[in-house]
Amino acid sequence: MSASRIRPIRTITQREVSDTLTDWRILIPMFILSFVLPEVLISGANFAVRFIGDSNTISRLVPFVMLLVGFIPASFSLITALETFVGERERNSLEALLSMPISDNQLYLGKLVSSLLPPLLSSYTAMTVFALSLRFGYPDLFFQGLTFEYLVLGFVLITFKALVMVASAVIISSHTTSVRAANLLASFVLLPTAAVV
Q1: Could you give the angle at which helices 104-137 and 148-175 cross, rounded to 10 degrees?
Q2: pLDDT tens-digit series, residues 172-188
Q3: pTM of the full predicted structure?
Q4: Low-confidence ranges of the chain (pLDDT < 70)
Q5: I need a surface site. Which of 34, 52, 82, 150 has the fewest CB within 10 A?
């Protein structure tokens, strides 16, 4: 892809990401899901070890918990992705966007990348916080439950899951007439993805 074709995608992405990262209604949940949720689950590990009494059983659940820690912030991506086109339509700014000298593919890719970056970064941060907290708080559980292969697999799974969810949500957003309708249709994306994970 040439630089002239990438420039509009980058411009749309920068604009959308800037709008997302300056909205406190999005930043506060992202912070909680990235930093507080992993610590809450780590504190639950101590209770689980005392309740079950067998750290080997708990260590088998560690990769699943790390996947859960990444899944929840990535699911948050539906909020921003569902508003990509339908939100523009409700704000009466879609016509101005469509009149720009860019192709539909460039517009779609710009919206897709801008909807994908913040939640994916949030998921990676949450999984890293979880892994580091487990490593220093419960090293036995870390070394028994999180091998290098599990860590890599967790990041790859969350990346593909977020990509599928965001791409689906952007398509839903481009074909609905209101944010409410888009939110109702989001369950057809979220539930199957959660079942797969």
Answers
A1: 150
A2: 878 887 777 777 777 77
A3: 0.85
A4: 1-2, 49, 53-55, 77, 197
A5: 52
CA separation for the pair 175, 128 (Å, rounded): 36
Per-residue exposure over 36-46, b if at least 16 CB sit within 10 Å of its own CB, e if not: ebbeebbeebe
115 neighbors 81 (Cβ within 8 angstroms): yes
Contacts with 89 (C-beta within 8 Å, 6 or more apart), sequence order: 177
CA distance 141 to 67: 16
Amino acid present at 125:
T
Contact 134, 42 (CB under 8 A): yes
State how far the Cα of 100 lies from the Cα of 135, in Å rounded to an integer: 50
Q: Is 90 exposed, middle or buried (0-12, 13-18, 19+ CB in 10 A)?
A: middle
The answer to whether 110 touches 12, Cβ cutoff 8 Å, is yes
Give the span between the Cα atoms of 170 and 181, in whole angstroms.
Answer: 13
Segment 112-147, tens digit of pLDDT: 888 888 889 999 999 999 999 988 988 888 888 888
Reduced to 3 states (helix: H, G, I; strand: E, B; else coil), residue 76 is: coil
